[in-house]
Design brief:
Among the domains are: 41-146, Immunoglobulins (Immunoglobulin-like, Sandwich), CATH 2.60.40.10; 150-194 and 206-253, Sandwich (Immunoglobulin-like), CATH 2.60.40. Helices cover 25% and strands 31% of the residues. The protein is built from five helices and 20 strands. The strands form four sheets. It has a six-stranded mixed β-sheet with strand order 2-10-9-4-5-6, with no helix packed on it. Strands 11-13-18-17-16 form a five-stranded antiparallel β-sheet, with no helix packed on it. Strand 7 (101-105) and strand 8 (111-116) form a beta hairpin. InterPro entries: Ig-like_dom, Ig-like_dom_sf, Ig-like_fold, Ig_I-set, Ig_sub, Ig_sub2, Ig_V-set, Zig-8. Residues 45-132, 135-254 form the Ig-like domain. It holds the Pfam family Ig_3. This is Ig-like domain-containing protein.
């Protein structure tokens, strides 16, 4: 009896030890490897969840929604647009008149990719990848189509003094998180970082032109130009790989303060208008003065008249007296029958 009790206790302890070792191996097994082991022996189709399910692209680009199904067997995959329950495809056959939609199937029949060319904002929404099992299997994907545009902070015309620092900041606040990168161009040339040179090789000098790219709430690229030169003037374009670009004009000036230059540029049109008005007023005043002078000269000629020089009395206007000419010498004859004037003897 004692041997039976001891043997039972020994068997119980051995069972507990084996169970403890099995649990330890299971706890130390990585989760993905454990899943792969389970999936490997699964006789039914299943979805691979290690794919992006929230896809963001910008307007005009091609959107790809990738659905991966393992252990397909004789089953097929369909794509459903959730907002109107429209069956877009069944297998590789497409059931929509919109030619932008297409299904791409891999050689191993594991990847079923819904492709949407020239994506528009109206294409945003939920798309379901379904497998015709019983009951049906489905996995939802969200597509976000945004209109991303770059913005350069500050004025579109920037005036800086030669030798100062030029800083251009380009921001893309809306768009996919995988916006890629941002390139800077001056005219048609790509802006490349340039190192400052010194006679002392032991001194470490920064790049005269540097580009800093970072992602916080938005994708931001900062172009910095140290010791601005006149040759740095030009049209600078911020061009993202997945968004519409934008430009700014940089003017590097020599001598005048940038703020004064900006104010002068901002009021150039008003100054030109004022100058035009002033010139017109001056011309108008000159015309008035010339007219008055001409009018006075005409009055003088009219008051003298041509008769004054020719001595023609009949040409004088009636009732006018020419006080500029001395009275003609004359006498009245004693004969009352004669009423004409006759010159004095010896008169001219």
């Amino acid at each position: 009896m004692q041997y039976i009790i001891v043997g039972g206790l020994f068997a119980l302890a051995n069972l507990h030890f084996n169970h403890h070792n099995a649990m330890g191996v299971a706890n130390h097994l990585p989760a993905p490897q454990e899943n792969r082991i389970i999936k490997k022996f699964s006789p039914h189709p299943y979805f691979d969840f290690d794919v992006p399910r929230n896809i963001t692209t910008r307007v005009g680009q091609t959107a790809f929604i990738n659905c991966r199904v393992e252990q397909m067997g004789d089953k097929s995959v369909s794509w459903i647009r959730k907002r109107d329950l429209h069956i877009l495809s069944a297998g590789t056959a497409v059931y929509t008149s919109d030619e932008r939609f297409q299904v791409i199937r891999s050689d191993k029949a594991e990847n079923w990719t819904l492709q949407i060319k020239f994506a528009q904002q109206r294409d945003s929404g939920i798309y379901e990848c379904q497998v015709n099992t019983e009951p049906k299997m489905s996995m939802a994907f969200r597509l976000n189509v945004v209109e991303a545009k770059a913005i350069i902070l500050g004025p579109t015309d920037l005036y800086v003094k030669m030798g100062s620092v030029v800083t251009l900041t380009c921001v893309i606040s809306q768009g996919p998180h995988d916006l890629g990168t941002i390139y800077w161009y001056r005219g048609l040339n790509l802006v490349q970082p340039i190192e400052l040179h010194s006679n002392d090789p032991s001194l470490a000098y920064p790049h005269r032109i540097s580009v800093e790219l970072k992602w916080t709430e938005a994708l931001t690229s900062r172009l910095k130009i140290l010791d601005a030169k006149l040759s740095d003037s030009g049209n600078y374009t911020c061009l993202p790989t997945s968004a519409e670009g934008t430009s700014v004009m940089v003017h590097v000036i020599n001598g005048e303060h940038p703020a004064a230059m900006q104010r002068g540029c901002a009021t150039t049109a008003n100054k030109d208008q004022h100058r035009c008005v002033q010139v017109l007023l001056a011309l108008l005043m000159l015309l008035v003065l010339a007219f008055e002078r001409w009018h006075r000269t005409d009055l003088i000629h009219t008051s003298h008249g041509p008769w004054a020089s020719r001595g023609c009395a009949s040409a004088r206007p009636t009732g006018t007296i020419d006080r500029t000419m001395p009275p003609l010498p004359h006498v009245i004859t004693r004969d009352p029958s004669v009423s004409t004037l006759s010159p004095r003897p010896g008169g001219a």
